[in-house]
Amino acid sequence: MIDLHSHILPALCDGSQDLETSLAMARIAVADGTTHLACTPHINPPIYHNHKAGIAAAMEQLQAELDAHQIPLRLVIGADVNMNPDVMRGLKQGTIPTLNGSRYFLLEPSHHVPVPDFLGQIENFLNAGYIPVVTHPERLSWFNSHYEEFVEAAKMGAWMQITAGAIAGHFGKTAKQGAERLLLDGYVHIIASDAHGIKQRPPLLSEGMEAAAKLLNNPDEAQRMVTERPQAILDNMPPDSVTPALAFQHSVGNAPDLSRTEQLTPTKSWFRSLFR
């Protein structure tokens, strides 16, 4: 399995605070079946001023420790990027890392306040050639009252990442119901752990995948959420080259080819035009 959202790097945000915790988290992930894990500390000024160079250096140090301790986990770079007006500039300037250097990046909306012009910002990222992976929408306090905005964002081309622990019930009834709603409506692309530690929010994916498989009565689709689609992100594949989320499996068969570098900056979002 591939986990594209974790806070395993020590002392960069509110996740692991020391090397021992990071190593223990890595062992938990490997025991659960994870082979690749994205290091995605928060970028959320003025609270967390992380940047690509610092994250890369910390990741290289942790990877060296994993190798020295013979923990078979491959780390890749990323960030959990707070949704604000400066994100586009950071992406273009290279101070905000995408997932493994791909066109995909984790985008975290505000937890408690609806994001102004949420869909307009999503469209701007898509038009610039980036694919935002919206993190844990089911855990946002404004998710249910703005559910159709998240559906529209997915229809436009954003990807939705739900939390394994939320599907398994560890974040409470409301988050579980929100995750199940997105799953049953077919708008979930990937499942990730959003791991922050060992006992609280550990890097476990299998329980979320199993819960999704049971809910959907579709083990193959649940498996794709932790294997095929995360791998496509790591490989920087265009979204139409992988099995689409359930809601789109009969809707995007004729999407244009985005595999060539010069096509990564479209003048308008073809994703949105598909659903008009």
UniProtKB/TrEMBL annotation:
Q: Which UniProt keywords apply?
A: Hydrolase
Q: Which InterPro entries match?
A: Caps_polysacc_synth_CpsB/CapC, Pol/histidinol_Pase-like
Q: Which domain of life is it from?
A: Bacteria
Q: Which residues cross the membrane?
A: none
Q: What's its EC?
A: 3.1.3.48
Per the record, the similarity remark reads: Belongs to the metallo-dependent hydrolases superfamily. CpsB/CapC family.
PANTHER family with a match to the protein in the record: TYROSINE-PROTEIN PHOSPHATASE YWQE
Query: What is the official name of this protein in its record?
Result: protein-tyrosine-phosphatase
